[in-house]
TrEMBL record:
Pfam family, one: Lactamase_B
Major enzyme class: hydrolase
The species this protein was found in: Crenobacter intestini
Assembly and interaction partners: Monomer.
NCBIfam families the UniProt entry points to: GSH_gloB
Protein name as it appears in the record: Hydroxyacylglutathione hydrolase
Known catalytic reactions: an S-(2-hydroxyacyl)glutathione + H2O = a 2-hydroxy carboxylate + glutathione + H(+)
Gene designation: gloB
Stored SUPFAM superfamilies: Metallo-hydrolase/oxidoreductase (SSF56281)
Bound cofactor: record note: Binds 2 Zn(2+) ions per subunit.
Domain Metallo-beta-lactamase: from-to ranges: 12-163
GO terms under biological process: methylglyoxal catabolic process to D-lactate via S-lactoyl-glutathione
Phylogenetic classification of the source organism: Bacteria, Pseudomonadati, Pseudomonadota, Betaproteobacteria, Neisseriales
Length: 251
């Protein structure tokens, strides 16, 4: 099975790295040093860079990495500096032994792309452990539709988000979905992982489906919670999602 390695960056980013015979593939290198250090320590070259969206904490290291490894190809959305191959929804491409499919997921930003290969989803700032990205550019409607596409992937897919936000997200999940045993179980396990200095990620999609309130907004418990929080009639999963997203912003 594919297994990406987390390279911690900044306060809470992960740069995911997949060793490949043709050179390692890294995702969202917001800074270059963690990647350069890893490659030097393991005697590897850099083969490819995948970029999910334009934010600096996902792109800031690309220039330095390209300078060190000029042959590394950068895959990403239009409008990001140093991208060699611009991708759109439905594209697919090969890095080493792996074929990735591009899933456009507007919401956090309008240019956001996720990368899927059977067994692994690089979800950037769209789908987090027990949460989802803030709506900086897109609408709740767009993000809801984007998450619905990710939620429809095979449930045994491992999800690799770009940030370690899981515990804060689970605290919110406990507030809006308090009777869900999957939330309390996950909070216990992931608290232990963090106490041991381990990542909570990747996480399997079936775990997300059971405990992420943003993927469960149409469940009766979440509809009731968003109704109570908002004070207005909430009639469907999309309206409930929009309330949960606003609620989380001020949580
Ligand atoms: Zn971002």
């Amino acid at each position: 099975m594919l297994s990406f390695i987390p390279l911690p960056a900044f306060a809470d980013n992960y740069i995911w790295l997949l060793p490949q015979p043709s050179g390692a593939c890294v995702v969202d290198p917001g800074e270059a040093s963690p990647v350069l250090d890893y490659l030097a320590a393991h005697g590897q070259q850099l083969g490819a860079i995948l970029v999910t969206h334009h934010h600096a904490d996902h792109t800031g290291g690309i220039g330095r990495l390209k300078a060190a490894f000029p042959h590394a190809l950068v895959h990403g959305p239009a409008g990001v500096a140093n991208v060699d191959i611009i991708h759109h929804d439905g594209d697919s491409f090969v890095v080493g032994d792996v074929r990735f499919q591009v899933i456009a997921t507007p919401g956090h930003t309008l240019d956001h792309l996720c990368y899927y290969t059977p067994g692994a989803l690089l979800s950037g700032d769209t789908l987090f452990g027990a949460g989802c990205g803030r709506l900086f550019e897109g609408s709740a409607n767009q993000m809801y539709a984007s998450l619905a596409r990710l939620a429809a992937l095979p449930p045994d897919t491992w999800v690799y988000p770009a940030h370690e936000y899981t515990l804060a997200n689970l605290a919110f999940a406990r507030a809006c979905d308090p009777d869900n045993p999957a939330v309390s179980e996950r909070l216990l396990q992931d608290s232990q992982r963090r106490q041991q200095g381990k990542p909570t990620l990747p996480v399997r999609l079936d775990v997300e489906l059971a405990s992420n309130p943003f993927l469960r907004s149409g469940e009766p418990a979440l509809l009731a919670a968003s109704r109570q929080h908002d004070g207005n009639p909430i009639n469907n999963a999309l309206e409930s999602f929009a309330v949960l997203r606003r609620w989380k912003n001020s949580f």
